[in-house]
Design brief:
Blueprint: E1 5-14, E2 18-21, H1 22-26, H2 33-40, E3 44-47, H3 55-70, E4 79-83, H4 94-102, E5 108-112, H5 118-131, E6 137-145, E7 163-173, E8 178-186, E9 194-195, H6 207-211, E10 218-219, H7 221-242, E11 252-255, H8 260-270, H9 281-284, H10 291-298, E12 308-315, E13 319-326
Parallel strand pairs: 4-5, 4-6, 11-12
Antiparallel strand pairs: 1-7, 2-3, 6-7, 8-13, 9-10, 12-13
Helix pairs in contact: 3-4, 7-8
The protein binds coenzyme A.
């Protein structure tokens, strides 16, 4: 059987127009622009205001742009995966809604839930399916409408997140490029450190759960910060070592955008200069599964064939991991 890899051939995104600034948040909770910028790196984030639009709307727009960028028609797509923790419905999958709306009528479709590591886990899963020869072309989408689970009276969480979607087309290649390696971890012991308490089968929606604000995101920020800093730095340096990559060999770090201090700690451990690190948390905040493809979109004109790129993420679960990919389009 011929050597196969999976490579990204198109990138797309959707960001809502509404810009929620730190100044506006000052009118909701006891916070200030200076605290938010210095503790997180965030200046503003996008919010999908239209109550009739949700994650599938953003994911569909991002997917259409990725298909156009790749020059691939929707009918050629074999698989659509949407990584999200804010699906339109618990079921059917948001990916099924996207499959219909983009016209990917030959594709099967499902969602993947790994919170902020969702896009990374989806990319490795779909990439492995392409490498196996089972499928040839896929849409991998990270999309979250975090504003649907944000408590705008809780200053410890409402300043952090934003809405958005990023998508890539992943295709089979016989070249020595694309996804080269990945390392991924989960620690299910810490299920209460970062979670949405109600709305699942354990605590279905009741008057009580709504009254107690259990449908909003809850997190122990300080503990998540510590775990995320360790996890992202460890796994990023681990994948470099495993693939004999020195800092000079790495062209870009594409980190999940949760906190600028976590990003800088990861880059430091990898020995990378800041100019090799993609950072857009200032503009979009933490868009959960969308952060990594949104970075790839913002930097796509700066990516060159042969660039060694490390994607790295950490999120609820707890989940974390890194992907080593060699760029070519
Ligand atoms: N504005 C002003 N003050 C705030 C605040 C806000 N929005 N949020 C918290 N504070 C206060 C706290 O109450 C605390 O006050 P105290 O010292 O009087 O008790 C103080 O600021 C420090 O709080 P702490 O939680 O220790 O701050 P921190 O430096 O850990 O930063 C986060 C908080 C949430 C920014 C940080 O922990 C973080 O980014 N965690 C990772 C979270 C994440 O992104 N997870 C998503 C998936 S990876």
């Amino acid at each position: 059987m011929a050597f196969k890899r999976a490579k990204i051939t198109g990138v797309g995104r959707y960001l809502p127009d509404y810009v929620l600034t730190n100044e506006e948040l000052e009118s909701y909770v006891d916070t200030n622009d200076e605290w938010i910028r210095t503790r997180t790196g965030i200046s503003e984030r996008r919010i999908l205001k239209d109550p009739d639009k949700a994650t599938s709307f953003m994911a569909t727009n991002a997917a259409n742009e990725a298909l156009k960028d790749a020059g691939v028609s929707a009918e050629e797509i074999d698989l659509v995966v949407v990584a999200t923790v804010t699906p339109d419905y618990l079921f059917p999958a948001t990916a099924a809604l996207v499959q219909k709306r983009v016209g990917a009528k030959n594709a099967f479709a499902y969602d993947l839930s790994a919170a902020c590591s969702g896009f990374l886990f989806a990319l490795s899963t779909v990439g492995s399916m392409i490498e196996s020869g089972r499928i040839k072309k896929a849409l991998v989408i990270g999309a979250d409408k975090m504003s649907s689970i944000m408590d705008f009276t809780d200053r410890s969480t409402c300043i952090l997140f934003g809405d958005g979607a990023g998508a890539v087309v992943l295709e089979e290649t016989n070249e020595d490029t694309g996804i080269v390696d990945f390392i991924q971890y989960t620690d299910g012991d810490e299920d209460n450190m970062l979670y949405q308490p109600a709305g699942g089968s354990l605590h279905p929606a009741t008057e009580e759960t709504v009254k107690n604000k259990q449908h909003y995101i809850k997190q122990d920020g300080r503990s998540v910060f510590k775990k995320a800093t360790e996890g992202m730095a460890d796994v990023s340096s681990e994948i470099m070592e495993k693939n004999n990559l020195k800092a000079d060999d790495v062209a870009w770090l594409v980190p999940h955008q949760a906190n600028l201090r976590i990003i800088h700690a990861t880059a430091r451990r990898m020995g990378l200069d800041k100019n090799k690190v993609m950072v857009n948390i200032n503009k979009y905040g933490n868009t959960t599964a969308a952060t990594i493809p949104l970075c790839l979109y913002d930097w796509k004109e700066s990516l060159n064939d042969g660039d060694n790129i490390i994607l790295s993420a950490f999120g609820g679960g707890l989940t974390w991991g890194a992907i080593y990919l060699k760029w070519s389009k």
